[in-house]
Amino acid sequence: MSEVRVRIAPSPSGNLHVGTARTALFNYLFAKKNNGKFILRIEDTDLGRSSDEYIQNIFDSLKALGLNWAEGPDVGGPYGPYSQSERFDIYPKYAQMFLDSGFAYECFCTPEELESEKKSAEENKQAYVYSKKCETRADKPAGVKPAIRFNVSKTQKAFRNTPELSFNDMVKGELKQNTDLIGDFIIMKSDGTPTYNFAVVVDDMLMKITHIIRGEDHISNTFKQILIYEALGAQVPQFGHLGMILAPDRSKLSKRHGATAVSEFVEKGYLTEALVNFIALLGWSPSDGQEIKTIDEIAADFRIHDVSSSNSIFEYDKLNWMNSQYIKKLDIETLKAALKPYLTQYDLSTFTPAQFTRMVEVTREPLTILSDITNDVPYFFGQGVEIEPEVQSTVIDTEVSQQVLKAFYEEAQNWKFTEDALHESLDTFRTKFKELGIKPKETMWAIRAAITGRVKGADITAVLAILGKEKVLNRVNKSLQN
Questions:
Q1: Is residue 236 domain-shared with residue 253, that is, in the same domain?
Q2: Final residue belonging to a domain, choices 223, 242, 261
Q3: Which of 204, 221, 397, 400 is the most buried (most CB within 10 A)?
Q4: Domain boundary residue among 242, 266, 294?
Q5: Do 249 and 370 share a domain, yes or no?
Q6: What residues does 232 pair with on adjacent strands?
Q7: Cα–Cα distances in angstroms (integers) from residue 336 to residues 268, 355, 363, 447, in the given order
Q8: What pTM, to 2 d.p., does this model score?
């Protein structure tokens, strides 16, 4: 087999969608598994919808995921340029070649004429296929620039004895299409710009792409593109079409379900290693059944023929679980650096390095995404604390809690506020109230609520030690009813 060359060719009309990222990942894994090349091409022929901002987002998102390309717009390569907008001078000569060979013809049909044809087909309850009226059209309006249509039937007859076109898809197996139902399609618009199906084939041919892995929504395009490859006398790549990614309710994945762009996931605090791991499992499973794997481990095991042909469900809960596992595996210094962007509203200068480290250590366990830390730590900062209304009424204001807090305020004056010492002091304190018939849980709820405003949170001994005696006593005092 010649060198494997795959590509991802996103359109910069929006931020990189997680579905496109999954397609990019599978291409990357396939190339890595086969010692091939992963290529990035920007398909920006729709200049009205394309923007430099979206192009940069594509670059940043793919790099964040570790999907580095061997050739592309920013790094160059032997078959550039790698942006379609810079390749407009290439397509006309191939279109002219088709005109000269009869594999294409000029089309002068107006939008009104085409609409009339479509309406007639609809009224007769038939699938619309272009009438080919321009193939032999004698009246060519002066001053009207024509579009160029690909002659499907002539191409079909030149390369096969039957209108049936089939190919063996790497994911879905054999796929077939009757070319008589395709109709002659436009390859060059009247304004001189190429259509998607024409430009992508010319680009893939010139860039020597050997395998094309993409979404199943392109299957109908694939039959048209195979015809173009044949008319060009080019080697037809192997195709693999992936099932779609659906939301948990099995509808199209959209913003109403949560984040959909890679950059959104990164901003929310998903680790890119976890995101890569998760999307690799959308339609594919490791041979050993172990789900937590590095990208290199996934690449070594990746098998394109074992990718499911069915749609995959994007389970946010599973992604959250997987991300939490990756957070747990981070060393403390890496985690501290990763969390700092989500703590900008707090004054970290009030902490010593040791205190900040300890705060991260005792709050990391429940984190599912890095941004959770923002709402998990406010009680570590400032002199006072905001107490949740329900906590105030159901915990702090009770007779038992007030008894506990008054005793705590008096006894803690003489406590040493180190974790080891606090552990012993709190144990003694709980035991005393237990002997009075007050459950240890009620005792600790009262203390935690007064100091943090909550009944759940980080290890209370660590919280007390980090805050220090003065802040702790001030907060307890404010909760006392005089």
A1: no
A2: 242
A3: 204
A4: 242
A5: no
A6: none
A7: 16, 12, 11, 28
A8: 0.91
Residues 461 and 413 in one domain: yes
Q: Per the structure block, which two tokens stand in for 280? A: 């690799």
Cβ(155)–Cβ(227) below 8 Å: yes
Q: Are 232 and 158 in contact (CB under 8 A)?
A: no
pLDDT of residue 6: 98
Tokens describing residue 401? 């809690």
Residues 61 and 116 in one domain: no
Closest CA to 197 of 260, 253, 148: 148
Are 236 and 166 part of one and the same domain? yes
Tell me: the pLDDT tens digits for 334-363?
Answer: 999 999 999 999 999 999 999 999 999 999
Instruction: Give the CATH number for residue 410.
Output: 1.10.10.350
Note the pLDDT tens digit of each residue in 56-105. Answer: 999 999 999 999 999 999 999 999 999 999 999 999 999 999 999 999 99
For residue range 40-70, list pLDDT tens digits in order. 999 987 777 889 999 999 999 999 999 999 9
Comparing C-alpha atoms, which of 279, 265, 479 is closest to residue 368? Answer: 265
Does 251 share its domain with 277?
yes
What pLDDT digit, counting tens, does each position of 359-385 carry? Answer: 999 999 999 999 999 999 999 998 889
Active site (catalytic) residues: 255
Q: Are 241 and 310 in contact (CB under 8 A)?
A: no
Task: Mark whether 95 and 234 lie in a shared domain.
Answer: yes
Task: Indicate whether 215 and 121 sit together in one domain.
Answer: yes
Place of tokens 């931020």: 15
Q: How many domains does the chain have?
A: 3
The domain containing residue 447 runs over which residues?
Answer: 333-479
Separation CA 431–CA 132 (nearest Å): 92
pLDDT in tens, 159-185: 988 999 999 999 999 999 999 999 999
